[in-house]
Amino acid sequence: MPARREQLNRDRVLAAAVALADAEGVDAVSMRGLAQRLGVVPMALYKHVANKDELLDGMIDAVVGEIEPPVSEVDWRTTVRRRILSARTVLLRHPWARRAMESKTTPTPIVLAYMDSTIGMFLAGGLSVDLVHHVMHALGSRVFGFTQELYETTPAAEVPPEVARFMAAQFPNIVAVATSRPHDPGSVVGPGCDDQFEFEFTLDLFLDGVERLHRNDWHS
Amino acid sequence: MPARREQLNRDRVLAAAVALADAEGVDAVSMRGLAQRLGVVPMALYKHVANKDELLDGMIDAVVGEIEPPVSEVDWRTTVRRRILSARTVLLRHPWARRAMESKTTPTPIVLAYMDSTIGMFLAGGLSVDLVHHVMHALGSRVFGFTQELYETTPAAEVPPEVARFMAAQFPNIVAVATSRPHDPGSVVGPGCDDQFEFEFTLDLFLDGVERLHRNDWHS
DNA sequence: ACCTGAACACCGTTCAAGT
DNA sequence: ACCTGAACACCGTTCAAGT
Question: Which label site among A11, A38, A167, B57 has the fewest CB atoms less than 10 Å from its CB?
Answer without folding.
Answer: A11
